Structures are given as structure tokens and as C-alpha cells.
Amino acid sequence: MEDWLPTLLATIAGTLSTSSFVPQVVKAWRERDTRAISMHMYVVTVTALTLWAIYGYLIGSWPVVIFNLISVFLSGTILVFTIRNERRRRNRAGQQHREPGMARHG
Predict the structure, then answer these.
(1) For the chain, which ranges sit under pLDDT 50?
(2) What is the largest CA-CA distance in the chain?
């Protein structure tokens, strides 16, 4: 097998898999609506991608390292948006359930 072929395949696969996160980041950024996004799934995804990047480093595969780190950044961005929006929803819900004039406790 040619020496360049595995690197080429890794680069193509990395480009495709990494670019798959971009539309979700753009949508979450523009709409500021992440209700349909599973926070738990993105926690697992960020963890897995981080481990893949470490694995790529250990075996000396720079395409694996680079594309997984870019994917960590993109999926981490989605995770941060999701966490932030969930906190905002909870705060709004808590404010709506309190009666006017009541002090907030806790």
C-alpha cells in the first residue's frame, strides 16, 4: 500500500466528520435555540473526541489529532450553547413561578 494513502483517507474522513458539526454550530448560534440538542450526547461526544485526539497523538497520526481537536472545539461550542441556554430557561421558569413581590430564597 502506498504510504500516502492512509494519510489521504484520514484527511478526507476527518474533513467530512469535522465539517458535520458546522451546521449545528451555526444554527445554535443564529437561533439561540438548543432545546432539541441532547446535552448528554454532546458530553459523551466531546469526551470521545478528546480521547481520539490523545490516541492520535500517541500513535503519531496528525490527521487524527488535528481533526479531532477541531471537532472538540466545534462540539464543545454546541455543548456550551446548550448548557447556557438550559440555564437561561431554568432561570426564566423559576422567575415565572414566583409570586410578584416574594423574595427569592436559595
Answers:
(1) none
(2) 75
Query: Hey, what CATH topology would domain 38-89 get?
Result: Monooxygenase (1.20.1280)
CA 25, CA 70: separation in Å to the nearest integer?
A: 13
The residues near 42 (Cβ < 8 Å, ≥ 6 apart) are: 75, 78, 79, 82
Kindly report whether the global pTM for this prediction surpasses the value 0.85: no
Residue extents of the structural domains in the chain: 38-89
**Cα distances (Å, whole numbers) of residue 90 to 54, 79, 85, 95:** 35, 17, 9, 9
Residues 39-63 pLDDT 10s = 999 999 999 999 999 999 999 988 9
What's the confidence (pLDDT) of residue 101? 58
